[in-house]
Amino acid sequence: MAYTIQDICKGTNENFFLIAGPCVVESRERCLEIGTRVKAICERLEIPYIFKASFRKANRSRIDSYTGTGDLEGLEIIAETGARLGVPVTTDIHQDSDAALAAQYVDILQIPAFLCRQTSLLVAAAQTGKMVSIKKGQFMSPEAMLFAVDKVRHSGNASVMLIDRGTTFGYQDLVVDYRGIPTMQQFGVPVIMDCTHSLQQPNQPAGVTGGRADLIPTIARAAIAVGADGLFIETHPEPEKALSDGANMLPLHQLESLLITLTRIRKAITE
């Protein structure tokens, strides 16, 4: 079954929805491989699916970190993946000029957590008319995210989602406060749990962010039990060979069994 953005975000489906894909565009073949496999799993389990990939990784620890294939090529690959699979697509933007450019290729513009207070970026994204998903800053309370939502709405765009990606705990860790999910749902927007970046371990001496991908199932199960509308999971067939954030990505072969468990939890709490 094909799901539109409106279907997904208005909750007209009974299941949670999934935003999933590689951290960044590595190649056309890799995006299609991952997207095809995830879509097949989601179709079997009746989970609405949105393909994600960054067209540019602007926020890297080191100057020599991989950032992408090039802006236009990356966006074209994301758009092609969505068109060939028949699913909506999303990518993140980092500066005002990215909004109009990326809006030509994707269905949802994602605002990174570090930039969730950046008024001009939120307004630029809103003015494209695309749905805007905003990641909660690691330094922000759930309650404070209402102001980010209001910036988009006051710019004439009512299509907003929020993504919780954890809260800074010391210099090299994050924690998840699940009270944030129902708190942000009170704003009248879908709330998604980022099961990948909430497990990051930043500020590592080598300049490469670490993570606990082994705990993705734990974060995901708890989020669905609390009532999250959707999940955000970065996945890769070979995380150890991924060009970005391999330490945080779920091995693709583990995705189906996890989603089966999550659909059972969803069914249990909605019956």
List the helices and strands and how they pair.
Layout: H1 5-9, E1 17-21, H2 28-45, E2 49-52, H3 71-85, E3 89-92, H4 96-103, E4 108-111, H5 119-127, E5 131-135, H6 145-153, E6 160-164, E7 167-168, E8 174-175, H7 180-185, E9 191-194, E10 200-201, E11 210-211, H8 216-226, E12 230-236, E13 250-251, H9 255-270
Parallel strand pairs: 1-2, 1-12, 2-3, 3-4, 4-5, 5-6, 6-9, 9-12, 12-13
Antiparallel strand pairs: 7-8, 10-11
Jot down its keywords.
13 strands, TIM Barrel, alpha/beta, 271 residues
Please describe what this structure looks like:
This protein is of the alpha/beta class and 271 residues long. The chain has one domain: TIM Barrel. Helices cover 36% and strands 18% of the residues. It is built from 9 helices and 13 strands. The chain has helices spanning 5-9, 28-45, 71-85, 96-103, 119-127, 145-153, 180-185, 216-226, 255-270; strands at residues 17-21, 49-52, 89-92, 108-111, 131-135, 160-164, 167-168, 174-175, 191-194, 200-201, 210-211, 230-236, 250-251. Strands 1-2-3-4-5-6-9-12 form an 8-stranded parallel β-barrel, surrounded by 6 helices. Strands 7-8 form a two-stranded antiparallel ribbon. Strands 10-11 form a two-stranded antiparallel ribbon. Strand 7 and strand 8 form a beta hairpin. The chain is globular and about 40 Å long. The mean pLDDT is 91.
